[in-house]
Amino acid sequence: AKHAGGNRYELADPEADARAITRHGLTTALPVALERGEFFIEYQPLVHLGDGSVRGAEALVRWLHPQHGVISPDRFIPLAEHTGLIVPLGRWVLEQSVRQARAWEAGAGADPAAGPLRVNVNLSPCQLTHPGLVSDTVEILERAGLAPGSLCLEVTESALIGADDDLLKPLRRLAEMGVDIALDDFGTGYSNLANLRRLPVSVLKLDRAFTQGMQHFPADPVDLKIIEGIVSLAHSLDLAVTVEGVETGAQADQLRELGCDTAQGWYYARPGPPDRLHELALADAT
Ligand code: C2E
Ligand code: CA
Ligand code: CA
Ligand code: CA
Predict the structure, then answer these.
(1) Which listed residue, 38, 56, 107, 279, has the most CB atoms within 10 A of its CB?
(2) Is there a contact between 214 and 254 (Cβ–Cβ < 8 Å)?
(3) What is the pLDDT of residue 166?
(4) What is the overall mean pLDDT for the chain?
(5) Which residues lie closer than 8 Å to 269 by C-beta, 6 or more apart?
(6) Is the peptide bond before 218 cis (omega within 30 degrees of 0)?
(7) Where is the EAL domain (predicted)?
(8) CA 158, CA 181: separation in Å to the nearest integer?
(9) Are 260 and 206 in contact (CB under 8 A)?
């Protein structure tokens, strides 16, 4: 209860209190959670729109909290960024994902014509400015024995807005080594299309907002024109286009017609355990 002057008492918003406590509780529990191994990774397939084959997966981290159950990254990644824990946590995700991609490769079985299953890993802006990014990544790839070409790092568009050369240097070095860089959540920020040429990216990931706009069928023709324009610009700059949030077959058909290269979304599969990705890849190779 909050003292509201005189002899009146008002209840503080109990939900806000719960959120505040939880937020604080979660923040203090984060470093311990990493030590105790409470994080795990789910993988969501990336599907080639042309032939429907599984080409790889995006790694998405989750926290299995002993009291609160599975906590979504939307809740704890911002806290980890705020406290700096994102650097060791992000490194852990990268290492696990790279080892997983190597395990998929060793287990083979995916369509040999499509090449080994690749893995996409999200990088937070704090990791971009951390001086160990390039050396850590090289070391992790070497230790696992994974080719740099099997790794794609996803960086949000907003993290690179107004990026100067110092910020781009590590990404450029990774790109030169053969690591793919994807511009994530494309279209949500102030996209400076001309700026794209400057960035060492090889993939554009169209934000879910675009596919959400296509939920009504037939979709708004203006939305379709915008996607078509982005795809043609991306292709003219030699960038591949991945769309996220594909939930229906009609969306997939339309996005294929618009020239998108790769899709990700519940229509194909929800994020899941690594073995399931391998099964999906095997199933479509037969
Ligand atoms: P994101 O990078 O944009 O990842 C895509 C999100 O969309 C994922 O949410 C995924 O589960 C969800 N999604 C996939 N397909 C569909 C669909 O068809 N419909 C709908 N409605 N949603 C779909 P998730 O797993 O909750 O992750 C949320 C965000 O947390 C990610 O957004 C990413 O920004 C961040 N994140 C996750 N893992 C990591 C990580 O290891 N490091 C960092 N820095 N951020 C991460
Ligand atoms: Ca992502
Ligand atoms: Ca995204
Ligand atoms: Ca998104």
Answers:
(1) 56
(2) yes
(3) 87
(4) 88
(5) 44, 45, 276, 280
(6) yes
(7) 23-285
(8) 14
(9) yes
Phi, psi at 200, each rounded to 5°: -80, 50
- How far, in Å, from the CA of 244 to the mean position of ligand 3? 7
pLDDT at 217: 60
Output the pLDDT for position 190. Answer: 67
Measure the CA–CA gap between 156 and 161, rounded to whole angstroms.
9
Distance CA 157, CA 151 (A): 19
Using a 6 Å CB cutoff, which residues line ligand 1?
Answer: 44, 60-61, 72-74, 77, 90, 93, 122, 124, 184-185, 208, 244-247, 264-266, 271
Q: How far apart are CA 153 and CA 138, in angstroms?
A: 13
Q: Look up the ipTM and state it.
A: 0.97
Token pair recorded at residue 273: 């355990």
According to DSSP, residue 179 is labeled -
Ligand 1 pocket mutation pick from 60, 75, 140, 186 by most atoms within 8 angstroms of CB: 60
CB count in 10 Å sphere of residue 273: 12
How much of the chain exceeds pLDDT 70, in percent?
Answer: 87
Q: For position 191, what pLDDT does the model report?
A: 67
The amino acid occupying position 15 is E
Q: Which parts of the chain have pLDDT scores under 50?
A: 1-5
Query: How remote is the CA of residue 93 from the centroid of ligand 2, in Å?
Result: 13
- The Cα 151–Cα 48 span in angstroms is 16
Contact in structure between 63 and 83 (CB atoms under 8 Å): no
pLDDT value of position 21 = 54
Residue 118 is predicted with a pLDDT of 96
